Amino acid sequence: MAAAKTNRKPDGKPDGKPDGNGNGTDPRLPQHANPAPPASTPSASTPSASPPSAPIPSVWTRQQKEPDQPALSRAAIVREAIVMLDADGIEALSMRKLGARLNAGATSLYRHVATKDELMELAVDEVFAEITVPPADTPDWRASATGAAQSFRATALRHRWLSSVLGQAGLAYLGPNLMSYSERLAALFTAAGFPEPSRAIDTVLSYVIGMSTTEAAWLTTVARSGETEADFIARLMPAAQQAAADHDHLSDAYATAAPVDPAALRDTKFAYGLEVVLDGLQLRLPH
């Protein structure tokens, strides 16, 4: 068999280019070096480590995408969502309607907020910044707890969707404002001397959220009527008295009820229940 030719430069030295037979090796290099062994492939019997479970994603930790419209930001989206929620409630809020109000498509909104649930979580945290908690070093823990409860109620009545949203499934509240609020409450009840401050806090919040939810629903019904609260009650009273006619205690209560300022009456009811809750908690303090 004829030996393969090697292309040579004008000086007679091989140039390493392939000749007509496809031989491109440089005769100056070793021709019989062992090739690198192929990468090993794990056999079917070799156990492989299972990947760790992925952490639950959170709107607070996910990196934001760069906006396609400089004027559109997460903060602007949340502010406008709160305006819509305050005006029309949760049912009326949609990403499409929100985008239209912001002169942006729903797709642009999704660059900042992945889902409506995340938007609600952001809105909740934004309004939690409005709730005040007195400093933990105040001498009268009851006055401080009362102030914190009243601030929560006032915020919940300004944003009537808030209390009902707090109990919705699928929402995990990890926002900075809510965390700060919770930390300040914990400091207040710990400084007061409660051996289990979290349980005392849960008791107070359960009362406040429960009362606020009922009160907000009532005020929403009144608002839909287009009347003042006093006028709405005056029109409702005849039907209420008729419905209570066969119930002695209720009929007596309706018959003897004197006209009062509805807002003042709601304030009185809330204060009464809160005082009872705090009376019970005070018995838990070490003597």
Structure overview:
17% of the residues are buried. Helix 4 packs across helix 7, helix 5 runs antiparallel to helix 7 and helix 7 (176-192) packs across helix 8. This protein has helices at 74-88, 95-101, 106-110, 116-128, 141-158, 162-166, 176-192, 197-225, 229-243, 248-256, 262-282. It contains eleven helices and no strands. With 287 residues, the protein is mainly α. Residues 1-71 are annotated as: Disordered. GO terms for molecular function: DNA-binding transcription factor activity; transcription cis-regulatory region binding. Pfam families: TetR_C_1, TetR_N.
Low-pLDDT parts are none
Number of contiguous helices: 11
Structural class: mainly alpha
Average of pLDDT: 84
Shape: flat
Please tell me the CATH architecture of the domain at 141-226 and 257-282 by its name.
Orthogonal Bundle
Distance between the termini: 110 Å
Biggest beta-sheet profile = none
The level-1 CATH class of the domain at 141-226 and 257-282: Mainly Alpha
Proportion in β-strands: under 5%
Task: Name the CATH superfamily classification of the domain at 141-226 and 257-282.
Answer: Tetracycline Repressor, domain 2
Secondary-structure element order, N to C: HHHHHHHHHHH
**Radius of gyration, Cα only, in angstroms?**
35 Å
